[in-house]
Design the sequence.
């Protein structure tokens, strides 16, 4: 019986994940209105069913009753997140809430299977982070002055990264964390958000050559500190986030091309100067020739993915623990091995779905500062996923970053939840923007002269930004 | 342009909220979307092609995980004979049995002292079990292991036996294959070993440096190809002269002098006036030597590249690459040696066989194939291996001319032992010298039958025995006879 259930669960889990992903993309394509509620409810059902079957197999195979309690607490936490979000913010973006919960559940399923103690630890962090996530959108609404704090962001960002460089602990050859009062923090995670705000505040008024150069120097300092800390993954994520923010602020593809050329040049220099970069590239080119040392991680990751095939070995049927640091850097490979290739592809698609929804939020925003923030966070999010999954499957050299919301790591999960909530807040900002516009329209209709004034102002602004085309978000 | 839109829509106030462009955000979205499509495509390709093979790596602990759950499946020949099977004793101990013992030693390989041959190539299939869930549960309750999947091969025991007997005590190798599908019907390497007792005999094989028992000579043995290499030189000539060979003339005096060196035809034979066809059929070294020094080096080297020299072959078992580069640094004397397959030319029988198959198949050979399908013990087909074309080695016209030349070898040349039979054969002999003593040579033959619509091809090398026409051609005849069921 147990055998049947475990084998059956494998296919059921993959099936529901496919359904969930399809619904996520259907929701993305449609206009966002209340008529989509059914979609979101169905998504929630799939999500809870996936967890039910996953924890059922986990419990049956280990005979651990405490897993059931953990499962219960997890369901309560996720259920209350979904319900509370809708109660506090009736106009919240449910697709983002659902995807957030889905990614968290996948993470918890794999973490429970890999290392139960870490799963418990992660659960407490996530519980706190979810409370934070509930509050953040409110602040996005209220704190309209945040766009003026550019030097504070710059200071906090550079200091945050600088402290790690000077005082940080060396883990696996790079300095990425430091410990205060027994809590180990990874500041580069939190600085990601501060950095996006920093760049946005530098560029939102104007993005002429002058602003771009100033921001490039300051962003370069961030990236160089990260390079000096040997935190390669983060430095590339910061770099990519900055590049695309400049593109969106300046609408000038020239900067993007220059950026890519500089990035390529930096990569070549990095390859020649740093031995740890060479080691990574060598392990990427031919992991099996150096399987005893540098290639070990990536080889084991490939073994895991290879044995998983399309439907996976089933939970507890594989050996993902063979991959060093599987719970932080190789969650994707563990998922691919035990839950299968189809599930893993859906996981990528759900992440991509989040990214598209983030961009859609950015498109709807009128305020340039918020648009930049939304795009910056979105690009950094998706690029981090590209680095960790691409590295794990040997599509690109390995950089060792986490898979947001799925991997184990408090700083990472807290940061990502804050990112999701900021975008949630920006999404709801649209309604306030619309309200303000309505007010303005009422006023304007009363007052023709004022209307003309606004028209003029508009033209001026438009001119300075050198716009060419006009999109209507309704046509999405 | 923008100005125009604003003025045209001046009347509508709610147009003001759209004073922005989303083009760059669309660009960002599409950019990362494409990057992710590539990444997912790579993932899909990895899982569907290389993924399974990962299980063979000795660092992969999953192999043990599977062998703890399943016992190894059987390897079965095309005529449904068991070539390898796992016997389970009452104590639960497993024993890998090879009913034909030495006969399939290299091609089937072994799985106890590392893995070789089909045992290595098909390992992922042999250790997975796709039996029904019910049977798995039955086994689980009974505390028994599941039966691994059975692998069916294209090998034929009758041809294998003939090939093995024909080589007798000589060292050498034979490959027989189906030209139209690329399926390998027999593959023999001598000396052979008994895979049943490989563990006991292991030390002895390692200490024996001279005979390299464990080496599969058919795929890994590197030999001078001798006159069989005239196929390559002829092809280079045809490429340089756009297929026009009618004007070629040479007067053979039994020896060819170049600077201070002198080469001769086999056993000093004098061929007198020869044209392109008779040079090939009678295997005139002097004619090829004079052709070789005059050939354009670039075209020659390009011919080698087209034929896959210094490159990997489309097979999944262990093999060595054939090696030869012809450039300006090759002296005229070396070029003479190369033109009839001596000197620095190094080829494996497998590679020569593939070139022969290309000629037989109109220029493009099929990929050599050993496995035909994977089945569970219950008879459910898990996977079928389709025959696939490989890249073009030459054009169809070139293949036709070479086929004609090889037919002439049988009709009037060095392989007349194959003439006047119930089938028409075509091929090329070779007598490759491997040391300074002229009388010692490896006997080669590579060819196919029937000549006009080839079905079967053979490549034979018998080490240190004499000329190809005397020692390799009769073996080819025996194999062709068996294939066409001639008594």
Sequence:
């Amino acid at each position: 019986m147990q055998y049947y259930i475990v084998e059956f669960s494998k296919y059921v889990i993959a099936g529901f994940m496919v359904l969930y992903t399809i619904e996520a993309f259907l929701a993305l394509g449609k206009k966002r209105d209340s008529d989509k509620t059914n979609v979101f409810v169905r998504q929630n059902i799939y999500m809870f069913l996936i967890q039910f079957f996953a924890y059922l197999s986990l419990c049956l195979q280990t005979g651990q009753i405490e897993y059931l309690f953990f499962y219960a607490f997890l369901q309560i936490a996720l259920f209350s997140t979904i319900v509370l979000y809708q109660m506090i913010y009736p106009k919240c973006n449910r697709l983002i809430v659902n995807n957030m919960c889905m990614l968290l559940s996948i993470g918890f399923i794999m973490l429970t299977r890999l290392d139960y103690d870490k799963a418990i630890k992660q659960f407490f962090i996530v519980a706190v982070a979810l409370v934070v996530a509930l509050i953040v959108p409110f602040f996005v609404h209220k704190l309209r002055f945040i766009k003026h704090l550019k030097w504070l962001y710059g200071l906090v960002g550079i200091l945050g990264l600088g402290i790690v460089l000077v005082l940080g602990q060396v883990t696996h050859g790079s300095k990425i964390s430091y410990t205060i009062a027994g809590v180990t923090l990874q500041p580069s995670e939190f600085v990601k958000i501060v950095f996006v705000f920093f760049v946005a505040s530098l560029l939102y008024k104007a993005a002429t050559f002058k602003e771009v150069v100033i921001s490039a120097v300051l962003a370069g300092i961030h990236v160089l500190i990260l390079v000096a800390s040997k935190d390669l993954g983060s430095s590339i994520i910061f770099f990519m986030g900055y590049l695309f923010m400049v593109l969106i602020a300046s609408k000038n593809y020239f900067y993007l091309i220059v950026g890519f050329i500089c990035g390529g040049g930096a990569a070549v220099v990095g390859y020649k100067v740093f031995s740890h970069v060479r080691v990574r590239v060598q392990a990427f080119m031919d992991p099996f020739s150096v399987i005893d040392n540098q290639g070990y991680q990536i080889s084991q990751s490939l073994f895991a993915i290879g044995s998983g095939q399309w439907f996976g070995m089933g939970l507890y049927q594989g050996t993902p623990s063979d991959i060093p640091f599987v719970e932080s850097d190789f969650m994707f490979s563990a998922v691919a091995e035990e839950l299968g290739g189809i599930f893993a592809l859906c996981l990528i698609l759900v992440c991509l779905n989040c990214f598209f929804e983030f961009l859609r939020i950015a498109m709807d925003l009128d305020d340039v500062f918020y648009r930049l923030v939304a795009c910056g966070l979105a690009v950094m999010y998706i690029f981090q996923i590209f680095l960790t999954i691409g590295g794990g499957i040997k599509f690109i050299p390995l950089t060792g970053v986490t898979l947001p919301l799925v991997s184990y790591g408090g700083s990472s999960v807290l940061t990502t939840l804050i990112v999701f909530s900021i975008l949630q807040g920006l999404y709801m900002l649209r309604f306030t923007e619309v309200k303000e516009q309505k007010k303005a329209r009422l006023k304007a209709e009363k007052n023709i002269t004022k209307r003309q004034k606004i028209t003029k102002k508009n033209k001026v602004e438009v001119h300075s930004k050198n716009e060419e085309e006009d999109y209507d978000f309704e046509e999405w | 342009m923008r100005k125009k839109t604003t003025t045209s829509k001046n009347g509508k106030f709610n147009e003001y909220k759209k004073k922005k462009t989303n083009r760059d955000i669309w660009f960002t979205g599409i950019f990362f979307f494409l990057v992710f499509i590539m990444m997912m495509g790579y993932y899909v390709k990895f899982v569907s092609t290389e993924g399974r093979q990962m299980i063979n790596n000795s660092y992969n602990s999953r192999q043990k995980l599977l062998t703890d759950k399943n016992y190894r499946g059987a390897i079965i020949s095309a005529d449904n004979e068991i070539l390898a099977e796992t016997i389970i004793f009452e104590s639960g101990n497993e024993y890998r049995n090879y009913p034909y013992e030495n006969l399939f030693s290299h091609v089937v390989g072994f799985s106890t002292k590392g893995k070789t041959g089909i045992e290595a190539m098909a390992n992922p299939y042999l250790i997975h079990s796709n039996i029904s869930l019910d049977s798995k549960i039955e086994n689980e309750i009974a505390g028994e292991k599941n039966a691994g999947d059975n692998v069916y091969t294209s090998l034929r025991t009758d041809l294998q036996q003939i090939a093995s007997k024909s080589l007798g005590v000589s060292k050498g190798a034979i490959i027989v294959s189906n030209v139209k599908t690329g399926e390998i019907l027999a593959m023999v390497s001598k000396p052979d070993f008994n895979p049943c007792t490989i563990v006991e005999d292991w030390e002895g094989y390692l200490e024996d440096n001279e005979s390299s028992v464990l080496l599969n000579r058919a795929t890994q043995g590197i030999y001078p190809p001798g006159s069989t290499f005239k196929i390559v030189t002829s092809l280079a000539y045809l490429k340089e002269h756009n297929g026009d060979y009618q004007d070629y003339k040479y007067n053979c005096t039994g020896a060819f002098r170049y600077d201070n060196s002198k080469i001769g035809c086999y056993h000093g034979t004098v061929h007198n006036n020869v044209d392109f066809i008779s040079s090939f059929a009678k295997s005139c070294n002097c004619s090829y030597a004079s052709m070789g020094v005059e050939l354009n080096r670039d075209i020659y080297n390009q011919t080698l590249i087209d034929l896959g020299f210094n490159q990997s072959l489309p097979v999944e078992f262990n093999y060595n690459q054939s090696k030869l580069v012809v450039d300006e640094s090759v002296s005229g004397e070396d070029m003479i040696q190369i033109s009839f397959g001596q000197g620095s030319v190094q080829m494996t029988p497998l590679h020569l066989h593939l070139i022969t198959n290309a000629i037989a198949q109109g220029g493009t050979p099929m990929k050599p194939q050993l496995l035909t399908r994977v089945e569970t013990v219950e008879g459910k087909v898990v996977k079928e291996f389709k025959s696939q074309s490989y890249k073009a080695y030459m054009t169809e016209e070139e293949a036709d001319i070479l086929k004609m030349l090889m037919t002439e070898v049988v009709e009037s040349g060095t392989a007349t032992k194959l003439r006047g039979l119930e089938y028409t054969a075509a091929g090329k002999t070779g007598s490759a010298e491997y040391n300074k003593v002229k009388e010692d040579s490896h006997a080669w033959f590579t060819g196919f039958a029937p000549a006009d619509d080839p079905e079967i091809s053979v490549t034979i090398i018998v080490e240190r025995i004499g000329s190809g026409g005397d020692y390799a051609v009769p073996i080819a005849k025996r194999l062709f006879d068996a294939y066409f069921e001639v008594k």
Q: What stands out?
A: The domain at 177-187+198-366+392-483 of chain B is CATH 3.40.710.10 (Beta-lactamase). The CA atoms of residues 8 and 235 of chain B lie 74 Å apart. The two ends of chain B are 90 Å apart (CA to CA).
